[in-house]
Design a protein that fits this description.
Layout (H helix, E strand, L loop, with lengths): L1 H4 L5 H21 L2 E2 L6 E2 L2 H11 L2 H17 L6 H17 L12 H30 L4 H32 L12
Antiparallel strand pairs: 1-2
Helix pairs in contact: 2-3, 2-4, 3-4, 3-5, 3-7, 4-5, 5-6, 6-7
């Protein structure tokens, strides 16, 4: 619960952000599909959105929004694949906690935070797609190890590149819409 409390947003805003995040994740996952040379794997834009959600709102908002959005996207296409939906939630948690208590809402998101965001995204993708997803594929879905580690490696590289580029652009654009603390002067 503390992952929601200290984000600077009310619980109502967090719930709405979670729902909107899940819906946007679903739309991007389902309808913005960039094919890849690796079977059953694509280049994904939705993780950039999920990372932004984690930074702007909270780890729990991103984790739940991504998890629900991923389940809905999979359920409406080829079926639920829990071994890849769980890592989506883990991704939201890792990025969210890495940038927890940032001051983006106050208009503060400089080079240090941007570097931290990109490092968090790369580490989170590595953990999720090179470790968690393949291990869950092997244990839950009885998939062959060589297949899932190749899929995971490709997902790691493509998702990390897209998240770092697209996520950084979105965060830099977002911070420009925020008023920095102390920038406004009272009218006389």
């Amino acid at each position: 619960m503390s992952a929601l409390k200290n984000s600077g947003h009310s619980p109502v805003v967090q719930v709405v952000a979670t729902g909107i995040g899940a819906a946007l994740f679903f739309v991007l996952a389902r309808f913005v599909i960039i094919p890849s040379p690796i079977p059953n794997t694509s280049i994904n834009l939705q993780y950039a959105l999920l990372a932004v959600l984690a930074v702007v709102y909270a780890p729990a908002t991103a984790a739940v929004g991504g998890f629900v959005g991923h389940i809905i996207a999979d359920a409406t296409s080829y079926g639920v694949w829990i071994s890849w939906e769980i890592p989506t939630a883990v991704f939201g948690l890792i990025v969210g906690y890495a940038l927890y208590r940032n001051k983006i809402a106050e208009g503060e998101f400089g080079t240090k935070e941007l570097v931290r965001f990109n490092l968090a995204a790369v580490v989170a993708h590595a953990v999720c797609w090179i470790v968690v997803a393949p291990l869950l594929d092997i244990t839950i879905m009885s998939e062959p190890a060589n297949k899932v580690f190749v899929q995971g490696a490709f997902a790691f590289v493509s998702n990390a590149v897209v998240t770092c580029i697209v996520g950084s652009v979105i965060l830099l654009a977002y911070v420009k819409t925020r008023v920095r603390t102390g920038e406004l002067e009272a009218e006389k």
